């Protein structure tokens, strides 16, 4: 009842004001104004009467000229006040919120054809592309010290829809795009990818295909998860067969049912005559540049220069002259470690990638899944075998074998796993005497192996990369061909867990026993790696000289 009374009062007041103003301003202004009484006229001078009549006529004239606009204004005020009065009587289920206005705006924006992307909200996508750095600032470049400086470009907003790291040709009609994407988006949403090839030849029409996404991190992702998008144009015998060049564009769609956004991302540019199609032809296989290529995970933390020195010298000798090592600096290659690597970089045996910019995107262990997949596809057609293990692990084959003979025996498999031999990183063998022990390399004195029985230990692996579409840290689950898991008699790796991140003398305890129990863990003396220590040091001295003799822990 009270609301009805307020409603009636408001309507009465408004209509009274409206008709009063209407009568006052919009009556026929052309009629003569009534003459004042004679008594008043006698009190006012003729000059004042003349000016008052002139001002009044001027005011009436102005109002008369704008009478239509004033009527429209007062009618609008009447409608708004009426709505404000009626709102309390409307049902509670009727409401307007910011989300309703946002939905209306997005529906309107989707009707506008985009210029450079298929993003539903065109304004945000264009602003992001306009604010992005120039192309010159975004390309990979080689620094003066031989390090390849890598770049990472985010597209989208908030947790980016897609963070592009790289894209590579995977065959005559296929490509692989490697990057990151929002982890919740892939867990709770339905994102999809479409690949489009736009030829540099204006007579050729663009072609597109559905991209197949591969999530490689086994559910370990954090804010971001690693995504490998396979773009196979199966309807064509070859993409860019005339070698005229072109661009690969990835259309990444969020799959959000309420606001489905698509970002169009140029991920790869091929210059004219830049593709060697013989590289992908199975009938005219070229000899690989490398027999063995090492793909390292992200290196971070305060790494020990001496441990890195031992690791690289050991494996350069182990894998031989037709091998190469790709390392990824996520903050662990400080100046002292770089001094250890420089001689090998100068010899062309090591390539170092600076990937510190990826720290902006919170993924599992410094985005190591993305890093190893980039390495896989970057060098996929350059190496016969590709190894994946860490810089505190040392691969070994029995004395009667060589790495070449072992790999020959495993050629029928696309992948094989390597069994772990866990070594203590605190207990040292003192058979040479305490004084001489501290002067030896870590691999010479850390000689006690953990023999506690456990259900399983982590393994590392090697693959023939041409048969692999995506990879992981401990093995690949996306490949064609067979995997071999019983190669322990042929090849193993010794794991000195945690030793790489200790900037001090590793020996905490010295023993001279063949068997012992330390902190409820049984150990046995294993001199497998120790026995080759002298040969490794001699190899380093002959290969790069004495440049690293004063390397510190």
From TrEMBL:
- How does it sit in the bilayer? Single-pass membrane protein
Give the UniProt keywords, A-Z: Glycosyltransferase, Membrane, Transferase, Transmembrane, Transmembrane helix
Q: What is the species listed in this Swiss-Prot or TrEMBL entry?
A: Capsella rubella
TM helices/strands, residue ranges: 7-26, 72-90
Enzyme Commission number, as recorded: 2.4.1.-
Q: Name one Pfam family in it.
A: Glyco_transf_92
- Identify the taxonomic lineage of the organism of origin: Eukaryota, Viridiplantae, Streptophyta, Embryophyta, Tracheophyta
The protein's name is: Glycosyltransferase family 92 protein
Q: Where in the cell is it found?
A: Membrane
Biased-composition ranges, Low complexity, are: 118-134
Renumbered residue ranges of the record's region Disordered: 118-140
